[in-house]
Prior knowledge:
The longest helix has 17 residues, at 279-295. The mean pLDDT is 94. Strands 1-2-4-3-5-6-7-8 form an eight-stranded mixed β-sheet, with helices on both faces. It has ten helices and eight strands. The protein is globular. By secondary structure, it is α/β, with parallel strands linked by helices.
Amino acid sequence: MSREQRAGIGAQLQQARSEGPRSVEELRAGFKAMMAGMIVPDTVRTSWTTLGDRPALQVEPEDGARGGTILYFHGGGWVFGSPETALSLTANLVARTGLRSFSVDYRLAPEHPFPAAIDDTLSAYRALLDGGADPSTIVFAGDSAGGGLTVTTCLAARDAGLPMPAAIVAFSPGLDATRSGESMVTKEDADPFFTRESVRHTGDMYLGGADPRQPLLSPAVLADPTGLPPMLLQVGTNEVLLDDSTRMAARARAAGVDVVLDVTADVPHVFQAFAGVLDEADQALDRAALFLTQQVRTA
Protein backbone atom coordinates (compact mmCIF):
# COMPACT_ATOMS: atom_id res chain seq x y z
CA MET A 1 0.00 0.00 0.00
CA SER A 2 1.22 3.49 -0.78
CA ARG A 3 0.53 6.43 1.49
CA GLU A 4 1.87 8.69 -1.25
CA GLN A 5 -0.57 7.28 -3.83
CA ARG A 6 -3.53 7.79 -1.54
CA ALA A 7 -2.47 11.33 -0.64
CA GLY A 8 -1.97 12.25 -4.28
CA ILE A 9 -5.38 11.00 -5.35
CA GLY A 10 -7.04 12.68 -2.39
CA ALA A 11 -5.44 15.99 -3.34
CA GLN A 12 -6.50 15.55 -6.97
CA LEU A 13 -10.11 14.94 -6.00
CA GLN A 14 -10.10 17.75 -3.45
CA GLN A 15 -8.92 20.18 -6.11
CA ALA A 16 -11.73 19.11 -8.44
CA ARG A 17 -14.41 19.35 -5.74
CA SER A 18 -16.74 22.31 -6.07
CA GLU A 19 -17.52 24.44 -3.05
CA GLY A 20 -21.01 25.23 -4.31
CA PRO A 21 -23.80 23.59 -6.30
CA ARG A 22 -23.03 22.99 -9.97
CA SER A 23 -25.46 22.97 -12.85
CA VAL A 24 -26.35 19.66 -14.45
CA GLU A 25 -24.25 20.57 -17.49
CA GLU A 26 -21.22 21.39 -15.32
CA LEU A 27 -21.59 18.17 -13.35
CA ARG A 28 -21.76 16.06 -16.48
CA ALA A 29 -18.87 17.77 -18.25
CA GLY A 30 -16.62 17.76 -15.20
CA PHE A 31 -17.20 14.09 -14.41
CA LYS A 32 -16.68 13.07 -18.03
CA ALA A 33 -13.36 14.95 -18.12
CA MET A 34 -12.16 13.42 -14.85
CA MET A 35 -13.03 9.84 -15.79
CA ALA A 36 -11.44 10.18 -19.22
CA GLY A 37 -8.09 10.07 -17.44
CA MET A 38 -8.62 6.64 -15.87
CA ILE A 39 -6.61 3.69 -17.14
CA VAL A 40 -8.51 1.17 -19.26
CA PRO A 41 -6.94 -2.27 -19.89
CA ASP A 42 -6.02 -2.82 -23.53
CA THR A 43 -7.06 -6.49 -23.42
CA VAL A 44 -10.78 -5.82 -24.00
CA ARG A 45 -12.93 -4.81 -26.95
CA THR A 46 -16.11 -2.75 -26.84
CA SER A 47 -19.24 -2.40 -28.97
CA TRP A 48 -22.69 -0.88 -28.57
CA THR A 49 -25.88 -2.92 -28.38
CA THR A 50 -29.36 -2.58 -26.86
CA LEU A 51 -30.80 -4.20 -23.74
CA GLY A 52 -34.47 -3.62 -23.11
CA ASP A 53 -35.20 -0.11 -24.32
CA ARG A 54 -31.73 1.33 -23.62
CA PRO A 55 -28.30 1.35 -25.23
CA ALA A 56 -25.65 -0.75 -23.50
CA LEU A 57 -21.89 -0.87 -23.92
CA GLN A 58 -20.70 -4.45 -24.36
CA VAL A 59 -17.20 -5.11 -23.03
CA GLU A 60 -15.50 -8.44 -23.78
CA PRO A 61 -12.05 -9.98 -23.42
CA GLU A 62 -10.16 -9.85 -26.70
CA ASP A 63 -9.47 -13.57 -26.49
CA GLY A 64 -13.12 -14.53 -25.88
CA ALA A 65 -15.43 -14.58 -22.87
CA ARG A 66 -15.96 -17.48 -20.43
CA GLY A 67 -19.75 -17.53 -20.75
CA GLY A 68 -21.06 -15.54 -17.79
CA THR A 69 -22.32 -11.94 -17.86
CA ILE A 70 -21.69 -8.89 -15.69
CA LEU A 71 -24.64 -6.48 -15.91
CA TYR A 72 -23.01 -3.19 -14.92
CA PHE A 73 -24.63 0.01 -13.65
CA HIS A 74 -22.45 3.13 -13.81
CA GLY A 75 -22.15 5.79 -11.13
CA GLY A 76 -22.85 9.51 -11.20
CA GLY A 77 -25.47 10.35 -8.60
CA TRP A 78 -28.23 9.28 -11.01
CA VAL A 79 -27.57 12.63 -12.74
CA PHE A 80 -24.29 12.25 -14.65
CA GLY A 81 -22.01 9.50 -15.87
CA SER A 82 -22.35 6.92 -18.63
CA PRO A 83 -21.05 3.51 -19.68
CA GLU A 84 -18.00 5.33 -21.07
CA THR A 85 -17.14 7.03 -17.77
CA ALA A 86 -17.30 3.64 -16.03
CA LEU A 87 -15.17 1.87 -18.62
CA SER A 88 -12.09 1.63 -16.39
CA LEU A 89 -14.20 -0.32 -13.89
CA THR A 90 -16.06 -2.58 -16.31
CA ALA A 91 -12.94 -3.28 -18.37
CA ASN A 92 -10.93 -4.17 -15.27
CA LEU A 93 -13.63 -6.57 -14.08
CA VAL A 94 -13.83 -8.14 -17.54
CA ALA A 95 -10.05 -8.46 -17.80
CA ARG A 96 -9.82 -10.06 -14.36
CA THR A 97 -12.78 -12.46 -14.64
CA GLY A 98 -12.91 -13.33 -18.33
CA LEU A 99 -16.66 -12.57 -18.26
CA ARG A 100 -18.38 -10.26 -20.72
CA SER A 101 -20.12 -7.14 -19.46
CA PHE A 102 -23.07 -5.04 -20.53
CA SER A 103 -23.00 -1.52 -19.09
CA VAL A 104 -26.49 -0.02 -19.21
CA ASP A 105 -27.00 3.57 -20.38
CA TYR A 106 -29.98 4.13 -18.08
CA ARG A 107 -31.92 7.39 -18.11
CA LEU A 108 -30.65 10.20 -15.89
CA ALA A 109 -32.26 12.75 -13.61
CA PRO A 110 -33.43 15.48 -13.49
CA GLU A 111 -34.92 14.79 -16.91
CA HIS A 112 -35.90 11.30 -15.79
CA PRO A 113 -36.20 11.07 -11.98
CA PHE A 114 -36.93 8.01 -9.82
CA PRO A 115 -37.88 5.32 -10.73
CA ALA A 116 -36.67 5.69 -14.33
CA ALA A 117 -33.17 4.31 -13.64
CA ILE A 118 -34.55 1.22 -11.90
CA ASP A 119 -37.08 0.69 -14.68
CA ASP A 120 -34.23 0.71 -17.20
CA THR A 121 -31.88 -1.59 -15.29
CA LEU A 122 -34.71 -4.02 -14.57
CA SER A 123 -35.65 -3.95 -18.27
CA ALA A 124 -32.06 -4.78 -19.18
CA TYR A 125 -32.08 -7.75 -16.80
CA ARG A 126 -35.39 -8.94 -18.25
CA ALA A 127 -33.88 -8.71 -21.74
CA LEU A 128 -31.02 -11.01 -20.75
CA LEU A 129 -33.45 -13.51 -19.23
CA ASP A 130 -35.82 -13.30 -22.18
CA GLY A 131 -32.84 -13.93 -24.45
CA GLY A 132 -32.29 -17.27 -22.76
CA ALA A 133 -29.61 -16.40 -20.20
CA ASP A 134 -29.65 -18.50 -17.06
CA PRO A 135 -29.79 -16.17 -14.00
CA SER A 136 -27.02 -18.24 -12.39
CA THR A 137 -24.69 -16.95 -15.14
CA ILE A 138 -25.54 -13.27 -14.50
CA VAL A 139 -24.06 -10.99 -11.84
CA PHE A 140 -24.85 -7.35 -11.09
CA ALA A 141 -22.04 -4.86 -10.49
CA GLY A 142 -21.99 -1.10 -10.15
CA ASP A 143 -20.40 1.91 -8.54
CA SER A 144 -21.83 4.75 -6.45
CA ALA A 145 -25.39 5.37 -7.68
CA GLY A 146 -24.96 2.30 -9.86
CA GLY A 147 -23.87 0.35 -6.81
CA GLY A 148 -27.17 1.32 -5.27
CA LEU A 149 -28.92 0.10 -8.40
CA THR A 150 -27.40 -3.36 -8.00
CA VAL A 151 -29.44 -3.73 -4.81
CA THR A 152 -32.61 -1.88 -5.82
CA THR A 153 -32.78 -3.69 -9.18
CA CYS A 154 -32.63 -6.98 -7.29
CA LEU A 155 -35.40 -5.82 -5.00
CA ALA A 156 -37.53 -4.79 -7.98
CA ALA A 157 -36.78 -8.08 -9.75
CA ARG A 158 -37.70 -10.12 -6.67
CA ASP A 159 -40.95 -8.21 -6.22
CA ALA A 160 -41.74 -8.79 -9.92
CA GLY A 161 -41.29 -12.53 -9.48
CA LEU A 162 -38.05 -12.72 -11.46
CA PRO A 163 -35.21 -15.04 -10.44
CA MET A 164 -32.24 -13.51 -8.70
CA PRO A 165 -28.85 -13.07 -10.39
CA ALA A 166 -25.95 -15.05 -9.00
CA ALA A 167 -24.33 -12.19 -7.08
CA ILE A 168 -23.98 -8.45 -6.44
CA VAL A 169 -20.77 -6.42 -6.36
CA ALA A 170 -21.16 -2.78 -5.33
CA PHE A 171 -18.37 -0.21 -5.18
CA SER A 172 -19.15 2.64 -2.73
CA PRO A 173 -22.89 2.20 -3.26
CA GLY A 174 -25.47 4.90 -2.60
CA LEU A 175 -28.10 3.07 -0.55
CA ASP A 176 -29.81 5.68 1.61
CA ALA A 177 -31.66 8.63 0.12
CA THR A 178 -32.63 9.75 3.64
CA ARG A 179 -28.93 10.59 4.21
CA SER A 180 -29.28 9.50 7.83
CA GLY A 181 -25.94 7.72 8.23
CA GLU A 182 -23.54 9.13 10.81
CA SER A 183 -20.75 9.14 8.21
CA MET A 184 -22.61 11.88 6.33
CA VAL A 185 -21.35 14.13 9.14
CA THR A 186 -18.33 12.37 10.62
CA LYS A 187 -16.60 11.75 7.27
CA GLU A 188 -17.36 15.04 5.52
CA ASP A 189 -13.93 16.51 6.28
CA ALA A 190 -12.17 13.31 5.21
CA ASP A 191 -14.10 12.86 1.95
CA PRO A 192 -12.19 14.58 -0.89
CA PHE A 193 -14.97 14.02 -3.42
CA PHE A 194 -18.37 14.62 -1.80
CA THR A 195 -19.84 16.99 0.73
CA ARG A 196 -23.16 16.44 2.45
CA GLU A 197 -24.56 19.31 0.39
CA SER A 198 -23.32 17.95 -2.95
CA VAL A 199 -24.88 14.57 -2.23
CA ARG A 200 -28.16 16.25 -1.31
CA HIS A 201 -28.01 18.41 -4.47
CA THR A 202 -27.89 15.49 -6.90
CA GLY A 203 -30.05 13.31 -4.68
CA ASP A 204 -32.89 15.82 -4.81
CA MET A 205 -32.74 15.76 -8.62
CA TYR A 206 -33.16 12.00 -8.61
CA LEU A 207 -35.95 12.07 -6.04
CA GLY A 208 -37.98 14.54 -8.09
CA GLY A 209 -40.16 15.18 -5.06
CA ALA A 210 -40.54 11.52 -4.09
CA ASP A 211 -40.42 10.53 -0.43
CA PRO A 212 -36.94 9.08 0.23
CA ARG A 213 -38.37 6.86 2.96
CA GLN A 214 -39.08 3.85 0.76
CA PRO A 215 -37.15 0.64 0.10
CA LEU A 216 -36.19 1.37 -3.52
CA LEU A 217 -34.61 4.67 -2.47
CA SER A 218 -33.17 3.79 0.93
CA PRO A 219 -32.63 0.03 1.05
CA ALA A 220 -29.88 0.30 3.67
CA VAL A 221 -32.45 1.41 6.23
CA LEU A 222 -35.85 0.34 4.89
CA ALA A 223 -35.62 -2.67 2.56
CA ASP A 224 -36.18 -6.32 3.42
CA PRO A 225 -33.26 -8.00 1.61
CA THR A 226 -34.57 -11.53 2.17
CA GLY A 227 -33.85 -13.68 -0.84
CA LEU A 228 -31.22 -11.42 -2.38
CA PRO A 229 -28.10 -13.08 -3.80
CA PRO A 230 -24.66 -13.04 -2.17
CA MET A 231 -23.25 -9.52 -2.14
CA LEU A 232 -19.85 -7.89 -1.88
CA LEU A 233 -19.86 -4.27 -0.72
CA GLN A 234 -16.56 -2.40 -1.12
CA VAL A 235 -16.14 1.04 0.43
CA GLY A 236 -13.41 3.35 1.72
CA THR A 237 -13.17 4.90 5.15
CA ASN A 238 -12.86 8.40 3.68
CA GLU A 239 -16.45 8.48 2.41
CA VAL A 240 -19.60 10.23 3.53
CA LEU A 241 -21.39 7.19 2.09
CA LEU A 242 -19.49 4.74 4.31
CA ASP A 243 -22.52 3.96 6.48
CA ASP A 244 -24.65 3.16 3.42
CA SER A 245 -22.52 0.04 3.04
CA THR A 246 -22.09 -0.83 6.72
CA ARG A 247 -25.83 -0.63 7.40
CA MET A 248 -26.72 -2.53 4.22
CA ALA A 249 -24.33 -5.28 5.21
CA ALA A 250 -25.87 -5.53 8.68
CA ARG A 251 -29.37 -5.58 7.23
CA ALA A 252 -28.44 -8.28 4.71
CA ARG A 253 -26.76 -10.40 7.37
CA ALA A 254 -29.82 -10.17 9.62
CA ALA A 255 -31.98 -11.36 6.71
CA GLY A 256 -29.80 -14.41 6.09
CA VAL A 257 -28.09 -13.08 2.98
CA ASP A 258 -24.46 -13.97 2.34
CA VAL A 259 -22.59 -10.65 2.51
CA VAL A 260 -18.97 -9.54 2.47
CA LEU A 261 -18.27 -6.02 3.74
CA ASP A 262 -14.86 -4.98 2.38
CA VAL A 263 -13.63 -1.70 3.92
CA THR A 264 -10.33 -0.15 2.83
CA ALA A 265 -8.67 2.49 5.00
CA ASP A 266 -7.89 6.03 3.86
CA VAL A 267 -9.25 5.75 0.32
CA PRO A 268 -11.95 7.84 -1.37
CA HIS A 269 -15.25 7.17 -3.09
CA VAL A 270 -15.03 4.51 -5.85
CA PHE A 271 -11.27 4.24 -5.36
CA GLN A 272 -11.32 1.17 -7.62
CA ALA A 273 -11.47 3.51 -10.63
CA PHE A 274 -7.82 4.38 -9.93
CA ALA A 275 -6.57 0.94 -10.96
CA GLY A 276 -3.04 1.16 -12.29
CA VAL A 277 -2.34 4.20 -10.10
CA LEU A 278 -3.44 3.14 -6.62
CA ASP A 279 -2.32 -0.23 -5.26
CA GLU A 280 -5.47 -0.57 -3.14
CA ALA A 281 -7.62 -0.17 -6.25
CA ASP A 282 -5.99 -3.10 -8.02
CA GLN A 283 -6.16 -5.23 -4.88
CA ALA A 284 -9.85 -4.45 -4.39
CA LEU A 285 -10.63 -5.30 -8.02
CA ASP A 286 -8.78 -8.58 -7.60
CA ARG A 287 -10.98 -9.40 -4.60
CA ALA A 288 -14.12 -8.40 -6.50
CA ALA A 289 -13.11 -10.55 -9.46
CA LEU A 290 -12.48 -13.54 -7.20
CA PHE A 291 -15.88 -13.09 -5.56
CA LEU A 292 -17.62 -12.92 -8.94
CA THR A 293 -15.90 -15.98 -10.35
CA GLN A 294 -16.75 -17.92 -7.19
CA GLN A 295 -20.45 -17.06 -7.49
CA VAL A 296 -21.25 -17.12 -11.20
CA ARG A 297 -21.85 -20.27 -13.21
CA THR A 298 -19.98 -20.06 -16.49
CA ALA A 299 -20.63 -22.02 -19.64
